[in-house]
Every structure is written in structure tokens, then in C-alpha cells.
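User: Last request for today: this protein with zinc ion, please.
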Amino acid sequence: MASSYEALRERLRTINNINKAGAVLAWDQQTYMPPGGVHDRGAQLATLAQLSHGMFTGDDFGELLDLAEDEVKDLAYESDEASIVRVTRRDFEKQRKLSADLVGRLRRHATESRNVWVKARQDDDFPAFAPFLQQTVDLSRETADAYGYEDRPYDALVDVTEPGMTTADLEEIFGTLREQQVPLIKEIVSRPQVDDSVLHQPYDEAKQEAFGKLVVGRLGYDFNRGRLDRTVHPFEIALSIDDVRLTTRYDPNFLSMSLFGTMHESGHGMYEQGMGRELAGTGLARGGSAGLHESQSRLWENIVGRSLRFWKAFYPELQRTFPDQVGNVPLETFHKAINKVHPSFIRVEADEMTYNMHIMLRFELENDFLEGRLEVRDAPEAWRARMDEYLGVVPPNDREGVLQDTHWSTMLGGFAGYCLGNVFGAQFWEKAIADRSGIPDEIEQGEFGSLLEWLQQNIYRHGRKYQPKELVQRVTGKPISTQPYIRYLKAKFSEIYGPL
Ligand code: ZN
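Assistant: Here's the final one, the structure of the complex with zinc ion:
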């Protein structure tokens, strides 16, 4: 490759090193840092972010990008070189659109507003948080204006986390899901309910940890290039392709939290460990979008990890680990318990069937805020009305309603990926088992190599080369569709609740 492209690669490597040094500090902050360190750590992270932002958005970087663009213009769209230049150009243009002033105000708002939100949630005091939510709405509008959009303000925000997708795309996807899922949920709730008391017993934390590690190691998460630590809000973080870390939290009286939480994060982790090495040191060596990332965590956690086949392989080991808790519990009882559907108030505790409704509600209210159809003061009531409509339950207070998530203390537009992940995940899964029909039987034997290799070849190694619509089309030969997900839900929950 000619010299400007190599010079661009070198510059990207330096910027990436700064960003990853920041990631180490962020990981440390959320795992081992003493609470007293929080103030200075914030300043350290801000310095690194400014340094990297300055290097990435400077005029000299733009000139280098122009030259490199010229050098790769005849290369194939799929080539690493053309892709690295194309995606870097997109990131460059986006980052340059936010002024230093706006970025500074966004950061200050995030810090102040998050503190107010923590207290307002504790006190169940929406009026105390309302002025800050108003600022979030105003700043989100300003950010959308700065990025620019043709049609709807939300278009500009969703394009950051789901490149190439629009509000109209999401409305179509969410609309079909709502039409299908609301009646399914109503039907399931009317059937005899599942008893999940087997999961709510004392489970020794050290044994939970050992079992969780055993499971995700067998799935294919590589502990030579990763580790598992404890935190309050679990996450996965990649410090490089060869150092991808997971975190989890334990409830000593509830098995699901850590077990499925760890499987979830391991899905994110295997995605990052599977990046193509030719993309290392660029902004392309990470998951393709929030929704694509979530497609992998949910595929491994839900489609694989909550299936009867999977537990045929792992239940005997679980029974050996916890003989007092599950030694005499039939596999079928356990399988039903881990798939119990129960409409509830809190998004992060929602089951697989009701989860999407929580996301739709937020997506709709965010658009209503941005487009002036909803005033901040009316948000609690709008929240309750939608909960009632979609899930048939109404939170008794705002702490379990509009105040439950931290997202609205900083920015709108952060939720769509959680729902898209379910849709993409099911679509990929359907294609994977069509391509390799042995996968389900292998899972029943506790073997996951064939599935992991398919995902690596088709999805993981591409990183951010392709946008979600492109990747889904390339991998499955079809545009994004909710049908595989609906088929999956009906088949799976028919096993638990009878034919649906
Ligand atoms: Zn996730």
C-alpha cells in the first residue's frame, strides 16, 4: 500500500492507543478503584478524551484522510483498506460536527444531571429531576441539529449507534413487533403461570462464579485473552483484541442474575475477541453497532443459554454444583423457571418476551419529546399509560416508572439497540442453523465450536466494516426482518406455556 494510507494507519494506531489507555482507566474505575478516586479519574479520562479527539478531528488528519482516500479509490468496497478509509471518513465527519463548546456542555450536564437523578430516584421525586430532563431534551435536540438530519431529529441520534438506520426503519420494526408481541404477552399471562422458586434460593457466590466461568469458557470465551471481575452494573470492555474483559454481579439468593448476566457479557466478549486482526488499531475493530453487539449477547444468553438443548448438556453439572437446590428438580422444571414470562416494571429485570415493550415505550416517548408532542412534566403519566397498554401493569411510583433508567439523565436515543439486538440475533441464528444443521445437536452435547466459527466468519471478523442493514443483507441474503424473531418466540414459549 502507498504511503499516505500507511501514515493514516499509523495515526489511527496512536489515537487508538490513547483511547484504549482510557478504557483501562474506565475498567479500573468500575471494578477496583477506591471511591475516593472518582474526581481525579474523571479528569484523567477527560484529558485522554480531549487528546484523542483533537488528534482525530484536526485539519491535518483531514488532509491525510483525503490523500489516503485518493490512494484506495480503486480498491474493492469490501477490502480492508477501502473499508478502513470509508468508516474513518464517516467517524471524522461526525466528530467534527460537534463543537468543543457543545461537547463540554454535554459532559457537564451528564455529571450534574446523573447526581440529581440518583437522588430523585431514591426519593421518588420526579419534579426534582424534571428540569434536568428538560436539559437532556434540549441538548439532544441541539446535538441532532449539529449532526444534521433530513427528516426527524431522532434520525441524527440513531445514526450514531446504528449507522445507516432511520427513525422510520425503527418505527416499522417496532410496529410489527408490537402488533405481534402485545397479544402474545396477553395470551401467556392468561395461561397457568410458571413457578420459578427453584431459582430463588441461597446459591453460594463462589460456586456461582466457578459455574459461570465453566459455562462461558465452554461457549468459547477465551480466558487467556480475557477475565471476569465483579461490578455494580455489568459490562464488557475490550482493551485490545487479545484483552477483552467481562464483569458480573452476584445475588446470593437468585441464580439467574449472574449466570445469565455472565453469558450475556461473554457474547459481547466473544464478538470482540473475534475481530479480524487486519482491523486492529483502527476504529473498525469493535462491534458493528449497538444492535449488532446486543444481537450477540442475546444470542448466547437467550437463544443458546436458555434453551432446553443447552441445559441437557449443563444441567447435570449444575446439579452436582448445587445438589441441595436443584438435585431433585427435574430439568423441565428448571427450564421453565429460567424462561418465566412476567410483565414487570423494571426494564433491566424484564424477561425475554416482555423486554422489547420496555424499549418501544422509551423510543416512542423520546420521539414525542424531540418533536414537541410531549412536555417533560407529562412524562410520568405518559409512561404509566404506555405500560398499561403494552404490558397491562402500571408502576405504583416514578422510581419504578420514568425515573428507573440513568439514560435520560444524559442523552436521548440510547435504547434502540437493545430491541434491534433481539431481531438481528434471531435472524442470524435462523441462517446459522440453515447453513449448519448440526448446530442444535452440538449444543445438546455442550459443543459450540461450529456456531462460534460461523459467527466469527460471518459477523465478528468484520468489526465495523459494514453497517447493520448491509451486514444483515450480506449474512442472511435478506433485509432486516422481525419474522425470524417472532417465529423463535412463538416456538420457544409454546414449549413453556403450551401452543401459541
Ligand atoms: Zn448487552
